[in-house]
Write a structure and sequence with these properties.
Radius of gyration: 23 Å
Keywords: Cell cycle, Cell division, Chromosome partition, Cytoplasm, DNA integration, DNA recombination, DNA-binding
Mean pLDDT: 87
Main location: cytoplasm
CATH topology of the largest domain: hpI Integrase, Chain A
Strand order of the largest sheet: 1-2
Low-confidence stretches: none
CATH class of the largest domain: Mainly Alpha
Number of strands: 6
Largest sheet: 2 strands, antiparallel
Shape: globular
Protein name: Tyrosine recombinase XerS
InterPro entries: CB (IPR044068), DNA_brk_join_enz (IPR011010), Integrase-like_cat_sf (IPR013762), Integrase_catalytic (IPR002104), Integrase_recombinase_N (IPR010998), Tyrosine_recombinase_XerCD (IPR050090)
Distance between the termini: 53 Å
Oligomer: single chain
Organism: Brevibacillus nitrificans
């Protein structure tokens, strides 16, 4: 199990006791379907948000989420669930203050249609389990009626070309790949307005550049990079040993270009003052832990967004770096099966989504036809 999954599994274990017993049963059922700990945590967060909304709206007499009885779910009306959807659509206007103890900047951001659909899908999954799959000692369903079954999710099916068009503005192509990495190392300092920010950047630029360059040089997931140990690196072969999604052992490659940035970082890794037992490749320090320890996925996501915004591509995310590698790979090596092996995809259909991103290639093919 990767470090990220171990952390999520621990968090799942620590938080599940705060939920009603039937949610625990639901999570146990999902575990049998081999859902990852992070997916299960997502279910819990979505259920928690809904339950707190129920308490705020007076749809339950319970004052503790754990005490919400099944009967209250059974009594929910379709209008109530539709009111919840409206709340999700407008909650940013109130910073979601009714449901959040400590509202943050993100609480002022409007939920996307995709986020709202996911939150409702989580509830639909819970209610389906309670009304159709689960049964009590008499063989009866936990819920007599499933109000979520009456809620339809509006989904817009995108063609591969439409999806490609949406992705194109959020990834790096050709020289942009090298320009972005060079910007992190040489250009971002000019965007640091204070001496403190300048010092922080100079302390971490080798690490940050190496993380981004490695993802771009091999199409790795952020969780795979964060989970890397020193013993996982085979420098002479440009390979990384890792456990991928589905608990599959793999040894994908990275490029010589990425290797240069990794080697540069490894030369200064000791500056983070890790303990002799710390085997993590990419380290971070904090006021509570000044000794170098494994950097977290969330930290990498935030640093990529910071650099992307300054670079002028604010929609570029750490996952889009993986998209960037995949798109560039197919641009220069038109063999999706090789890319499938490198990315660790189980199905070639997943890999083929990148074949449509470069519309210029399709345009030339159309012109060649007539």
């Amino acid at each position: 199990m990767s470090v990220t999954k171990q952390r999520d599994a621990l968090q799942l274990l620590q938080s599940i006791g705060s939920y009603p017993w039937y949610v625990e049963k639901f999570i146990e059922h999902k575990k049998t379907k081999k859902n990852s700990p992070s997916t299960l945590l997502g279910y819990l967060r979505d259920c928690s948000f809904f339950f707190r909304w129920m308490m705020t709206e007076g749809l339950t007499a319970a004052t503790d989420m754990k005490e919400i009885p099944l009967a209250d779910l059974n009594e929910l009306k379709k209008e109530s669930v539709e009111s919840y959807i409206l709340y999700l659509q407008e909650s940013h206007l109130y910073e979601r203050s009714a449901l959040l103890t400590h509202p943050t900047k993100s609480s002022r951001k409007e939920y996307s249609d995709k986020t709202i659909s996911r939150k409702i899908s989580s509830l639909k999954s819970l209610f389906h389990y309670l009304s159709v799959i689960a049964e009590d000692e008499h063989g009866d369903s936990y819920l007599k009626r499933n109000v979520l079954a009456k809620i339809e999710l509006e989904t817009t099916e995108l063609t591969p070309l439409a999806r490609a068009h949406a992705i194109r503005a959020k990834i790096l192509i050709d020289d942009e790949i090298y320009q972005f990495v060079d910007f992190i190392y040489n250009g971002y300092l000019a965007h640091c307005q204070t001496t403190k920010k300048q010092q922080y950047h100079m302390q971490n630029r080798d690490r940050d550049t190496a993380i981004v360059a490695m993802i771009l040089s091999g199409g790795f997931r952020v969780s795979e990079i964060v989970s890397l140990n020193l013993s996982d690196i085979v420098l002479e072969k440009n390979q990384l040993k890792m456990i991928r999604k589905g608990k599959k052992e793999d040894a994908p490659f990275f490029s010589d270009w990425g290797k240069e940035y990794l080697a540069r970082y490894l030369q200064v890794r000791a500056n983070y003052h890790p303990s002799a037992q710390e085997d993590a490749v990419f380290l971070a320090v904090s006021p509570s832990n000044p000794h170098g320890h494994r950097i977290e996925v969330r930290s990498v996501q935030k640093l990529v967004k910071k650099y992307a915004k300054a670079f002028g591509i604010p929609d570029l995310s750490v996952h889009k770096l993986r998209h960037s590698f995949a798109t560039q790979f197919l641009r220069l090596n038109p063999d999706p099966h090789q890319l499938q092996a490198q990315l660790g995809h189980s199905k070639i259909e997943t890999t083929m989504q990148y074949a449509h991103v470069l519309e210029d290639a399709l345009s030339k093919a159309v012109n060649r036809t007539t």
